[in-house]
Design goal:
The complex is a heterotrimer of chains A (343), B (513) and C (359). Chain B is an alpha/beta fold and 513 residues long. Chain B has 18 helices and 22 strands. Classes of the chains: A mainly alpha (343), B alpha/beta (513), C alpha/beta (359). Chains in contact: A-B, A-C.
Chain lengths: 343, 513, 359
């Protein structure tokens, strides 16, 4: 209900925007839908986009359910991709299954490794993880650049800055159309994380610590240990996103491998209210909106108008879900009050 | 209270509320409340937690709109749509939680939200100084707010309302943040405002405060007015208490003492620093025996909170030893202490004792979740069963046990927390402000539970700011001031006055938070 | 402003074409789509390509479309191309190096679509070719102008990445500088970005602070020029005539002129006889050129530059003619020898007179 209203408002605002920019809104909207959810091929592209978004969102949400902010998913994605690409370099002649498994494990390790510094600093010294994770993004991008321009440059590329293509057996298998196996990996990881947070003792401690650090200490939960494991785990999930993206959609390590997924993941997690179980749906919607929104550029819509339109739909639809928890008084009052009121 | 007022009488009344109804989903907060406040008087609004006092006052201040009922200010009928409407009609409210900005000066905070587009700092500071001088509100207008104590901050809140020239001031439980001397000072300030022709509505559930300060009292119970505009000069506290709780409350009689046994908790030369690295208490020595309640009295901020934290293991001592039943536990972890029989009821219930965003069940199993595991998982049925047992055994009134803990009222929160802590029959119970903010029945229930523990043979340490409670319940009473145990009293014979003097014996204290 | 005039011009020409061809629907079956790496408003690389697209549309009457700001190395590129092909576009032009392998794969997948890739080197033998220009020719000429303009003898060069294309440009520029001012030196700062106004501006400022009084660049924004303008120094821009952004500093610029080549590709595709090639056009072909030289440059210098330009177009002068020595003083090319295309495409050394390293 609220979802529908939010979407309607978003589409209305979008219509004004498109009319203002001189486009036919109906044509644009139908193209958005066709390109993202119109047929199996479109679904495949959307799902491929939702995979890194979902994993990045999960990474942020895992940290977020303990009240920590991992702003470094972008860099951790790159670190994961670097580690996976490294395995692909040394294991080019391994059988496909072993190679891909090793790549993904390396990706998990790479992302986790990049999070170790901020995790230790936060756990032992209380250094704000927002700053440290953010700074390491820069380190990761420089590392990728250095590799692509330097040691990992393809010798056959006439000195152009290009890492070699992955060997064929290092690519994730295809499920249907162009949708790759990463979909199942992401789904499994999201389900596992949701179950772990909701039903295990580990997740219980995480939720206690996220609700109140003092309560966690009171009940004997070691906060530093928790911070350490959760931030590293968050980095590891982001790293997995990098590995999956490398083996699933990108053909090689590039400077743009993370493609902003790490930052989009923050939005995904926030819209999922930091609940791992909410990440999948948000990521799917996010992916559809991105793919649909990009597609309309081919109809002559400029990239800035397309980006604004994507933002409208995203925040209209999902924001409505968030705000529907509050009752809005429309009977002349100028304020809204939460449903739970103290007497 | 349906009154037909003559025009003459009407002019005397600054506030008239008649037949106010207000419902929230699932709760009727006000069911036809009446209230009449005389101009130039201090009017107590009494009632237990949940009686509907705050709701009624939020209606008067324009925060909520009533479902039905009439509201007249100075004889004129009003329908407030928001707090600004109420303010322009001369009604201002000082809320329990302050709405101030620490980095702003006092004067800037006073004009916040109502400042002219060009702020003439000097002019505003002069105006604020004039108002504070007139009513005896001693604050320096140019001082930054973060330097102020809670009591001083409250004065800033009052100044905010006065600066907007409110004729009716609502104070929601204003004494909870004040030291005893500050309470007296507040009384003086309110009297000056009343003499200036303003009306004050004073919300409280502490009878003894009200009798010293207020002229009249209205008592609410379960959303209804049970007694309107009682003259305080001719009404004694028993009668007020009777109106508040409906039945005659258990007049404080000292329960039978149990026979003390061996020492279960012993503090030897214990010292610790506070949050800012300054010594919070030093060289504290005392023992609590089995079957004994020892009380610690003192004005807030004299080291009691830190003392409780150190015993519970949430704060490291800088020096000294802590023994439990003959074992040195100075370095033991909080979990280890709980497992060896130390229960801790912290002062900050929702911030330390409970996890506010989690469900009732999740909170109930905080101490025992490790025993309810199979493999990595917590068994939901087992957790639920444990929770319902606590809920029924300790009389927690709750809805869905998987609903958020925040849906419980203050008294039920505390019952759940206390029940959880006492469930394992601990040998030592540390209770910090266990009855603060609870209604009369809640207070009684918690006190009975602590007495039961003592009678069972536990050693109980009770830290409280409610002197009457300590004098009634404890077997021995320590007074803490400036981080030092200043005196020990036999509560059976000590007078309230004597103990009070010990609490304030040394350098002037102010409550800092 | 320039864009408006260009657009107006394009409309006029387009109108003229429609009127003269009188409803001819030769182009009905051919539609060309362009994928750009930057925004069309960058005033640099992508802007120049979009000028070319508009020119080609008006010259050929073929419907064109574009998407901008498409990152390399992500799934976005292929998604866009498939979208275009779905909508009936059958000429795809990608204007960034990183699209190369995606285009190769897509060319295999869609054999009926013509793919042409700007700045890459891969191709197939049916429907995928590449296009680039001999930018070193106007780079050399712009170096001559810069060499005449420096009095400190130090010229700063803000450059993106140490790849052959950029190194070749720096070397050609330096040889041009030395043709006029044998003792002048060119100092290079690598920015590791094609488009980042802040980094580009900071790098230019660092060079100005070191005493450079002319700034050249291989970047896509105008930030370096704005720093030079503020410092009272001179500026050699790139991609397009950027004189409007720093009117006092602007000297000249080696510029791209993609339009004619795009017309050629589209006409070939329309006629059904597109054959993949590694097109490396020269000033003689018109794909690269030198922007007008600032009016305060000495006429004798302008004459010298114009003579050199005429010689290059005529094939009498090649910027990389020996003797050429590298930074260490080793002779890489003997006197009178002309460097072959292979050596130029793989160039990874700096000539003598350049300060900086290719690492």
């Amino acid at each position: 209900m609220a979802f529908g209203i939010g979407l309607a408002i978003a589409l209305f605002l979008g219509t004004l925007l498109l009319l203002g920019a001189g486009h036919d809104p109906l044509r644009i909207y139908s193209r958005m839908f066709e390109a993202s959810l119109g047929d199996p091929d479109a679904w495949a592209i959307t799902l491929n986009r939702a995979v890194p978004l979902g994993l990045a969102g999960l990474a942020v949400a895992i940290a977020g359910s303990m009240g920590l902010w991992n702003i470094g998913a972008e860099g951790q994605i790159m670190a994961g991709a670097i580690a996976a690409a490294w395995v692909a370099r040394i294991g080019g002649d391994w059988p496909g299954f072993a190679l891909i498994t090793a790549m993904l494990i390396a990706a998990i390790g790479g992302g986790g490794l990049l999070a170790v510094g901020p995790a230790v600093a936060r756990a032992k010294l209380g250094v704000n993880e927002i700053i440290t994770t953010l700074m390491l993004n820069e380190v990761a991008i420089r590392l990728v650049q250095w590799l692509v321009h330097g040691p990992w440059k393809d010798p056959d590329s006439f000195n152009f800055p290009l890492a070699p293509m992955l060997p064929d057996q290092a690519r994730l298998p295809t499920l249907f159309s162009r949708a790759h196996f990463g979909l199942l990996i992401a789904a499994a990881v999201i389900v596992m994380a949701s179950v772990a947070v909701r039903y295990t003792a580990w997740g219980y401690e995480l939720r206690i610590a996220g609700s109140s650090g003092a309560t966690a200490r009171y009940s004997g939960i070691s906060l530093p240990k928790k911070v350490l494991t959760v931030l590293v785990l968050s980095g590891a999930v982001a790293g997995l996103a990098g590995g999956v993206e490398l083996a699933g959609t990108a053909d090689r390590l590039t400077e743009t491998i993370s493609n902003g997924f790490g930052f989009a993941g923050i939005i995904v997690a926030a819209l999922a209210l930091m609940r791992p179980s909410g990440v999948a749906a948000v990521a799917l919607l996010f992916g559809a909106v991105q793919i649909g929104g990009q597609s309309i550029q081919t109809l002559g819509v400029s990239s800035s108008v397309s980006t604004i339109l994507q933002a409208f739909v995203l925040f209209g639809a999902i924001g409505a879900g968030v705000f529907s928890r509050y009752r809005l008084s429309l009977d002349g009052g100028s304020h809204s009050i939460p449903e739970k009121a103290k007497s | 209270m349906t009154q037909t007022s003559t025009p003459g009488e009407e002019a005397q009344l600054s506030v008239e509320l008649a037949g106010i109804w207000k419902t929230f989903p699932g709760v009727v907060a006000n069911a036809g409340v009446d209230l009449a406040v005389r101009r130039g008087s201090i009017h107590a609004l009494l009632g237990e937690n949940g009686a509907g006092k705050s709701t009624l006052m939020n209606i008067l201040a324009g925060v909520y709109r009533p479902d039905s009922g009439e509201l007249r200010i100075q004889g004129l009928q009003h329908q407030f749509r928001n707090p600004a409407d109420a303010l322009s009609a001369g009604v201002g409210m000082v809320h329990q939680e302050f709405r101030l900005i620490p980095s702003f000066s006092v004067a800037e905070n006073v004009v916040l939200g109502a400042a002219p587009s060009v702020i003439k700092t000097r002019q505003i500071e002069r105006d604020v100084a004039a108002i504070s001088h007139k009513f005896g509100l001693k604050v320096e207008p140019s001082q930054p707010l973060w330097q102020l104590s809670m009591g001083e901050r409250q004065k800033v809140e009052i100044l905010k309302v006065l600066w907007r020239d409110a004729q009716v001031l609502i104070l929601d439980e204003p004494t909870t943040v004040l030291t005893p001397s500050e309470v007296d000072e507040l009384g003086d300030i309110l009297r000056r405002m009343a003499n200036d022709g303003r009306s004050i509505v004073f919300i409280s559930h502490k009878l003894h405060e009200v009798s010293g300060i207020c002229d009249e009292a209205t008592v609410l119970r379960q959303g209804k007015t049970v007694a309107g505009s009682l003259d305080m000069a001719t009404t004694d506290s028993d009668e007020l208490a009777h109106h508040m709780v409906g039945t005659s409350p258990a007049i404080a009689t000292r329960p039978e003492a149990a026979t003390p046994g061996r020492p279960l908790l012993e503090l030897r030369n214990l010292s610790a620093d506070g949050d800012r690295g300054v010594c919070a208490f030093s060289d504290v020595n005392f023992k609590i025996n089995s079957g004994e309640i020892v009380g610690v009295a003192g004005v807030a901020g004299n080291g009691q909170r830190e003392l409780a934290d150190v015993i519970a293991g949430l704060r490291s001592p800088s020096k000294g030893t802590l023994m439990m039943d003959g074992t040195d536990i100075t370095a033991a972890s909080p979990r280890r202490r709980f497992q060896s029989g130390l229960a801790y009821i912290p002062e900050d219930r929702l911030g330390v004792g409970l996890a506010p965003r989690l469900s009732i069940t999740d909170n109930a199993i905080l101490r025992v979740y490790r025993q309810q595991r199979r493999g990595l998982f917590i068994l939901a049925e087992k957790a639920m069963a444990y929770c319902s047992e606590i809920v029924s055994r300790f009389g927690v009134r709750s809805g869905d046990l998987n609903g958020p803990i925040a849906t419980l009222s203050g008294g039920n929160l505390q019952r759940l927390l206390v029940g959880r802590e006492l469930d394992g029959e601990p040998s030592v119970v540390v209770a910090s402000q266990p009855t603060r903010g609870l209604d009369v029945q809640g207070v009684k229930a918690i006190q009975d539970l602590l007495l039961d523990q003592r009678n069972r043979g536990a050693a109980v340490l009770m830290i409280s700011e409610d002197l009457d409670e300590l004098l009634t319940l404890t077997d021995r009473l320590l007074v803490m001031e400036g981080g030092i145990i200043r005196a020990e009293f036999d509560p059976g014979t000590a007078s309230r006055h004597e103990v009070g003097m010990a609490m304030l014996s040394h350098a002037q204290v102010t409550a800092q938070s | 402003m320039r864009r408006k005039i260009a657009a107006l011009l394009a409309v006029c020409i387009g109108l003229g074409f429609v009127l003269t061809s009188c409803g001819s629907d030769d182009g009905a079956d051919t539609k060309a789509a362009f994928v750009y790496v930057g925004p069309v408003g960058d005033a640099g690389w992508t802007y120049a390509h979009d000028e070319g697209r508009q020119y080609a549309e008006s010259e050929t009457g073929v419907e064109t479309a574009y998407v901008e700001a498409v990152p390399e190395g992500t799934a976005d590129f292929a998604n866009y191309v498939r979208d275009f092909i779905d909508q009936g576009y059958n000429v795809i032009i990608g204007t960034s190096f990183g699209y190369m392998d995606d285009m190769l794969a897509l060319a295999d997948e869609y054999p009926d679509v013509v793919f042409d890739h700007v700045s890459g080197y891969k191709m197939n033998d049916s429907n995928f070719g590449n296009t680039f220009g001999r930018m070193y020719e106007p780079r050399y000429l712009s170096g001559m102008v810069a060499g005449s303009a420096t009095s400190s003898g130090l010229i700063g060069y803000v450059a993106a990445f140490p790849i052959p294309e950029v190194i070749r440009g720096i070397n050609a520029f330096t040889l041009g500088v030395q043709a006029i001012n044998p003792s002048a030196q060119v100092e290079v700062i690598w920015t590791s970005t094609w488009f980042d106004p802040v980094v580009e501006g900071d790098s230019a400022q660092a060079l100005l602070d070191k005493g450079a009084d002319v700034i050249a660049m291989h970047q896509d924004s105008t930030a370096a020029g704005e720093k030079a303008e503020a410092a009272g120094a001179r500026w050699v821009s790139y991609n397009s005539d950027m004189s409007a952004f720093a009117p006092n500093a602007f000297l000249t610029a080696p510029v791209w002129n993609w339009g004619p080549r795009y017309v050629e590709i589209i006409e070939d595709a329309k006629a059904g006889n597109y054959t993949p090639s590694a097109y490396w056009g020269s000033m003689a072909d018109g794909i690269v050129d030198l922007a007008p030289i600032a009016s305060d440059v000495d006429q004798s210098v302008v004459d010298q530059v114009m003579d050199a330009k005429a010689s290059i177009i005529a094939g009498d002068l090649h910027p990389f003619t020996g003797p050429i020595t590298d930074q260490a003083g080793n002779e890489v090319l003997g006197a009178g020898e002309v460097m072959d295309d292979g050596a130029m495409l793989g160039m990874m050394f700096f000539v003598e007179g350049v300060i900086g390293s290719t690492g």
